[in-house]
Specification:
3 domains; elongated; 9-stranded mixed β-sheet; 3-stranded antiparallel β-sheet; 364 residues; alpha/beta; 17 helices; Arc Repressor Mutant, subunit A; Rossmann fold
Length: 364
């Protein structure tokens, strides 16, 4: 067996995790040297007895060949850390996956990528912002990486699929399992047009600890991560932390201070851990060398009146007279405070209005 097959075989063995493979890879110049060791030698590396038994008894050419045939029949391809196609940006991270299983277009990893994550139970505002931003980023040539979860993840994938750069879904379960089940159609669309990745072998039983681990891959593939709506204990904050640990950018979309779904995002901004953004332009200004002037101009023109909702048009109509405070807008629009706040945030993101000191809003 060559080194690649041995690495795949190790990854498929029960009870052999990332740290164990690291221990073995650090010990030997080439993975194939592992096959020359006796059980006593492996035990001397402080491996558990079950791990030693798996390596000495199960890691055989027939075992690996059988696994490879199984993946081939399922249309699943395998990428290892030893392969030249392995994404360089991910290889630079502290804990790159030894093996990735994938469906779709691996070449999408060669384009600039941005992660987008958030709550599984977003508000209508959060869902719309995620989809709109992902679409704009995709049109500008940035692929959008997310986790195929409910809520913001799904909205980000759906938006990016409408653009040219498409999307990458990093699963927190084996690649042959669709989770959540209601995202089956989205899974298949990404498989056809984008890329689906997982570091977990087929048949592996899903457990809660797998999802935080996949967040490091989302962050690792990305130049930066955008957080759209996240509660204080949101898993999205794990992705943001992973991005910060890898010296990647973190962006946060502000939400209503009264909303529990904004607490995590606002904390990132307050602590200086994330750059507050109110438009896609706030993101791409960090990467001017990656955006063509023509595409940026087209994005600016896309923020036109025909994209505004009826409620947004009503506020624009009021502000066409003169600038108004939020109290004046509450009185004239008769909206609830929460709804008005969401409408104003959306208009700010679309650059249809600007906010002046003293919570005064003016039409641009």
């Amino acid at each position: 067996m060559d080194n690649r097959m041995i690495l795949i075989g190790l990854h498929e063995l029960a009870g052999i995790g990332w740290k164990t493979i690291l221990k073995l890879m650090n010990r030997f110049m080439e993975p194939k040297d592992i096959l020359t060791l006796t059980a006593e030698s492996l035990a001397g590396l402080h491996l558990q007895s079950k791990q030693v038994e798996e390596i000495t008894s199960t890691l055989t050419p027939s075992f690996v060949e059988q696994k490879l045939m199984q993946y081939e029949k399922l249309g699943i391809r395998i990428l290892t850390l030893l392969d030249p196609e392995y994404p360089a940006i991910l290889k630079e991270t502290a804990q790159p996956p030894w093996v990735l299983y994938y469906k779709g277009h691996l070449e999408l990893c060669n384009q600039p990528l941005l992660g987008m994550v958030g709550t599984r139970t977003p508000t209508a505002y959060g869902k719309k912002i995620a989809e709109d931003m992902a679409l704009s980023l995709s049109r500008l040539g940035f692929g959008v990486v997310s986790g195929l979860a409910r809520g913001i993840d799904s909205a980000a994938h759906q938006g990016a699929l409408q653009g040219k750069a498409k999307t990458i879904a990093v699963l927190g379960c084996a690649i042959d399992r669709i989770y959540p089940p209601e995202n089956g159609a989205l899974y298949r669309q990404i498989e056809q047009q984008g890329l689906i990745l997982s570091e977990y072998p087929i048949g592996m039983q899903t457990h809660p600890g797998m999802f935080p681990l996949r967040n490091r891959i989302i962050a690792g593939l990305s130049l930066g991560v955008v957080v759209v709506e996240a509660a204080q204990d949101s898993g999205s904050l794990i992705t943001a932390a992973a991005a910060l640990e890898e010296s990647r950018d973190v962006f946060a979309v502000p939400g209503a201070i009264t909303s529990p779904k904004s607490v995590g995002v606002l904390s990132l901004i307050k602590e200086g851990a994330a750059k507050m953004i109110t438009s896609v332009e706030d993101i791409i200004e960090e990467y001017p060398h990656l955006v063509k002037k023509k595409e940026a101009a087209a994005l600016q023109q896309s923020h036109s009146a025909h994209e505004l909702t009826q409620d947004e048009l009503e506020i624009i109509k009021i502000l066409s007279i003169e600038p108004f405070s939020i109290d004046d807008l509450l009185e004239q629009s008769q909206y609830t405070f929460g709804h008005l706040h969401s409408v104003l945030l959306s208009l700010l993101l679309k650059k249809a209005i600007i906010q002046l000191p003293g919570s005064i809003y003016m039409k641009t």
